[in-house]
Amino acid sequence: MKPKERIQALRQLSICLWILFSWAREGGNLEAAYLSAELLLLQGWNIVRADAGKNTKTANAIATIYASILSAYQQVSTAYLGKLVIPHAGKLHGLSSAVRGSCSQDINLKLFDVLGRTALSGIWCFWQGQHYTEWTAEGDGYLNASHHYADLLKQMLNNNPTLYLPLKDDQCVDIALAVLLLRMHEDTESIGNWLADTMDRSVFAYRTNNAYPCNIRSYGELLHHPVRDEEYRQRVTEGSILYPFIAIIASSESCRQ
CB count, 10 Å around CB of 245? Predict the structure, then answer.
């Protein structure tokens, strides 16, 4: 697209997101607003990246609009977590009960999804707070918000044992985001305790042929996992990223028990 077309497209997308967010708050459907904001932030980069780092009129206009999209994403995330997660995070099994899933797989999938969202919100706040070279109230506010999200993360872990045994191997992404946020705040003790229990439970589930982490992505197949067959077990655990990730973090000096 031409420069004017890129600016126009990005501006239209930004306006649509703000309108959708307004409707979502009125309709009580923040999930839709969150997914849309997340998708726009990701896909919008395809428009932004051609001008990233440049000091031109077009680049500055695009950067301003993209900053508005990021602001919308953060406001959607704050509203989502404030209404749907924070009220339940401090209660034992609070989030697990709030999911109201039809089976244990539903609860597991949603809780790790929320874990990743919480961690990502904290990472964004920390990243923005670090951009201030001198103390400012705004920069300090971002860092305090990041610290708040890290505390929220620990509440979720302490009160929801489901988060100690991932069902899918790619839930390692959510775990990695949570580890990154906790490391940003130098809370290696929480990381070590959490991943040690995760590894213990994962190994026990694998050895006893219970719901161990697998590489299955189909929801229908996950409902029937695991199958008591050695060939099946080898197939659904090949190419794992979860165990190598935990091993790498556990081997670091800061997380050794």
Answer: 17
